[in-house]
Amino acid sequence: MPTVACPDCASTNRVPAERLSEKPRCGRCGAALFQGKPVTLTTANFDKHAAAETPLLVDFWAAWCGPCKVMGPQFDAAARTLEPRFRLGKLDTEAEQEIAGRYGIRGIPTMILFKSGREVARTSGAMSASDIVAWATSRAG
User: Fold this and answer.
1) Which has the closest alpha carbon to 137: 113, 101, 117, 104?
2) Helix (H, G, I), strand (E, B), or coil: what is residue 98?
3) Is 68 a catalytic site residue?
4) This prediction's pTM
5) How much is the pLDDT for 8?
6) Running along the chain, 141 residues long, what does each successive block of 10 average in pLDDT?
7) pLDDT of residue 68
8) How far apart are the first and last CA of the chain?
9) Which of 3, 43, 54, 76 has its CA 20 to 30 A from that of 11?
10) What is the pLDDT of residue 141?
11) Helix-strand-coil percent breakdown of the chain, rounded to 5?
């Protein structure tokens, strides 16, 4: 039974795979576990989301980055397509420098795919929504 962290309270929830498409809610706070948009990742919630069994696709970005601004709406669109098979999250590298440093982010935008706390794939550069979906799906295993 896959685990997924709540986008609101970061509590870990177990959801049977066959029920992921039934709009599951957090057992702790009642929030929808999948909201059709990326979760804002911070030092406070990053590790909970990364450790979940549901694959986490993270967009490492910064507000001053032109390619990041172009990719932002594409990443949002990819979230609507990939959820609930994936959790998508955005991490502002300027605000969360410790996490960006932990993963050696040197160029942005960079996407990293995590599964059960481990990095399984990474790519850099802006992508379209369809390319993000194809890339994540092909690497999730």
Assistant:
1) 113
2) helix
3) yes
4) 0.96
5) 96
6) 94 94 96 97 97 97 97 98 97 98 97 97 98 97 76
7) 98
8) 17
9) 76
10) 76
11) 35, 25, 45
pLDDT at position 28? 97
Residues 6+ positions from 82 with CB-CB distance below 8 Å: 57, 88, 132, 133, 136, 137
Q: What is the C-alpha to C-alpha distance for residues 126 and 113, in angstroms, rounded to an integer?
A: 15
Alpha helices in the chain (DSSP H): 46-51, 66-82, 97-102, 129-139
Tell me the three state secondary structure of residue 93: coil
Examine residue 67 and say whether the peptide bond preceding it is cis (omega within 30 degrees of 0): no
Whether 10 contacts 18, CB under 8 Å:
no
Question: Burial letters for 18-44: b for 16+ Cβ neighbours within 10 Å, e otherwise?
Answer: eebeeebebeeeeeebbeeebbebeee
Annotated catalytic residue within 6, 9, 29, 65: 65
Tokens of 74: 């594409």
- Residue position matching structure tokens 């039974």: 1
Q: Which two tokens stand for residue 133?
A: 């979906």
- Contact yes or no for 71/126 (Cβ under 8 A): yes
